[in-house]
Amino acid sequence: MYVRQSLVDRFSTFLRLEDDIAKGWMMDAKLHRSIQRSINHHPEAGESEPFWSMFWHQSWQRAQTAIALGHLSAYLQEVCYWSARTVKSHAGTVQYTLADFFQVAIAEVPKILNACDPNGQASLKTYANSAFGNLIRDFLRQRRDIDLCNEWGLLLKLSRKRLIEVLTAEGLSAKTIEQYVLAWHCFESLYIPSKAPGVRRTAAPSAEQWNAIANQYHSISGETCTPDTIERWLLYCTSRVRANLYPSIASLNAPRVGQDEGELQDNLEDSTRESLLAEMIAQEDIQLRREQYQQMNTVLSEASAALDETMQQLLHLYYHEQLTQQQIAKQLGIQQYAVSRKLAKLRETLLLKLARWSQETWQTSIDSTTLKAISPILDEWLQNIDRRS
């Protein structure tokens, strides 16, 4: 992937992916004019990337404008690409492409901007690098859990609030939503789950259960509804829930960020440029950072080695094997809430160990600001744990 050299390009161009290959950069004319105009208004800042990153981040937090979001979405393109590529190389799935992962993550830039403190120790790029990876992994875990369910199992996992949100997003009338939600309520209250012979998925309701569901619907609403209609409604609900949770990936030829019309089609000319790492080396004192990361890696490796056998097993299953909490609970023969508590305790132990090292090395205090700043470092270390195994 060719790296953007000028600051104007970094804040106004978007990556073009074709068949999971980075082909170049596409310019957004409105963002290009905006960043050029801003540089002219602040000549003292010049092309200082940290200044403009913080400038637009603070601008976003004051007023969430499309221009600020557009500039920062452009700025984080490389970070998002490398995060998506890293997850893709370890995900072991052919169902999703690199472009899928990229768009799942880049769509969450507003969430990252709200969560990251522009005045914190971790830069926006450092924070986003960790956050993008987490977002993609959460997407995979959530989809894997739901994909294991058939329609009847999915209906049992649904909450009333979630179902209403999905149906509302579909633009259905209040009356139709009320009917569908009542049908789901009757299903949930009367359906007794069972396993279909020879498979692990939940079997469909029996004819007797469908009749009971339809009768309860009639007794509550006063409206007559056949079992076939109830079934059709519920299957529609599950199809929309799946589609809502996992929307189709839009083309990169979508309308350009910050513009009322047009597409991302003005490509920048490609030329041989430095790698992303070379760019970072030119901008920062890479040697010092390498030493610090090596030290932090040593601290966390020693801390994980000092964990008891149960915690080490949990570390391996969740971060190396990437099992879900439900799968871990089943394998260890404990309740899922116990797994959740142990994972929280595991992360807390490692985070405090890293915080104490930070206190000794950088003379920082162990407070919420410090913990928030070093948390992405721990997350990145945990995400890459399988590489070190």
Essential attributes:
mainly alpha; 3 domains; 4% strand
Q: Report the helical percentage.
A: 55-70%
- Please indicate the percent range of residues in DSSP E strands (runs of 2 or more): under 5%
The computed structural class is mainly alpha
Order of helices and strands: HEEHHHHHHHHHHHHEHHHHHH
Q: What's the tally of helices?
A: 19
Shape: globular
Quantity of strands, as a count = 3
Distance between the termini: 28 Å
Average pLDDT number: 80
- Largest beta sheet, briefly? 3 strands, antiparallel
Poorly predicted tracts of residues: 195-200, 248-254, 261-286
Across the major sheet, the strand order is 1-2-3
- Taking Cα atoms only, what radius of gyration do you get, to the nearest Å? 25 Å
Q: Give the domain tally.
A: 3
Commentary on this structure:
This protein has three domains: 1-147, no CATH class; 151-245, no CATH class; 285-389, no CATH class. 66% of the residues lie in helices and 4% in strands. The chain contains 19 helices and three strands. A three-stranded antiparallel β-sheet has the order 1-2-3. β1 (13-18) and β2 form a beta hairpin. The model is unreliable at 195-200, 248-254 and 261-286 (pLDDT under 50).
